[in-house]
Request: fold
Amino acid sequence: MNQSLSQRQNQSLLDDHKTCRKLELNYRRNQQQDNTRNLDALAAKFRYEDCQNVRWNPENFSLLYGTKLWHEATATQRTKLNQLYWVAYYSQIISAEIATIFFNQTSAAGLYALEDFRLVCDTLDLESAQERAHINVFKKISEDFEQAVFGERLFTYAMRGPFVETMIHHHSNRVKKFWRWLQLHAFTLLSSGNAFIGCQYFTVRGVRTLNGKLIQHQLSRFYAKSEDQANAAIPSQVSYCHFLDESFHFNSSTVISHDVLQSVKAPTQFERFVANRALRGTQQDHYHFSTAINGLFWYDPALFAKVYKILRSPIFQMSDQEARQMMTECFTKDSDGLQLSAQSRQIALESYCEYLSALDYVSRDNKAMAIMRRNSIARHLATNRRELRKFFLALDAGQ
Reply:
């Protein structure tokens, strides 16, 4: 740091040689392996009819895997459930990456006001460009799938902005959505003008993407282990390329939230409060686990209408009564699929605790993931039973 001129801070990021080396290495390697062109080419090449009869994921990553529906499904139906998992999963990732693009930039604005933070900001610029390519290919494949199979949207949605709840199919209502909208706007203002909160955003990003890293590694292996990669289904190739990019993004989150943070001023009491409220929001978003889709923290009752439509669709051709009975079996009783989802969530929970353990400003409840620990399989099933009865009553009222 040039000591001959007056600077705003006494400590420069450049003084932390170890952290700078980590940042430089991660940035350079991400540039070298950047999958943007590959993903754009895959999006342009995708035709659903070319891969409509094959799996896109490992078998256990299928919609309602391990439930009565899965056990009774034909081979063709299981293939569609496998493809539906891909569409549902990456529809959630689109929502998360829209938010990431925006908050990368607001956080960079807060950090760039300090000396010597260009490398961090350049890293975030590269990642945001990659996220746009991810969103594009996820939307193309998912929307083409739903148009071909259902003729309408099911898990996909029109392009959206960042000021909505990141977790889709969440337990929400109008009041909660408005409160979240206010919180996101407030965090935007704070992160764009506050270096600590700008850095701390990457603690939140790291926690939120840690589970994604665990799941996406398994999805990527489906292509990586394929004996015929040249002819592998394009969605499986996309999963692989996406995981490569996101591995570097997770590294960035970790370095910024744990190492770069040491080069900014210690947080005030207010800054600690904001940081812990953001982590508490993550716990609330990750409170649920889903029988329908392993690896996402969706609220099953928010999926009832979609699953009912799938069961009544040409894929399964169930009557109203058959669909209701199947939903009761899948959502209100224990199953291998439910146990697998609960196990994935528990692994994520423990990983979050480890990720936050060295951060002094994080509260005891956040370090212990106290809110997430309140949920259980028994509570999950009780909620599904109660809400499924309400769903059936709403169906009756609409018929």
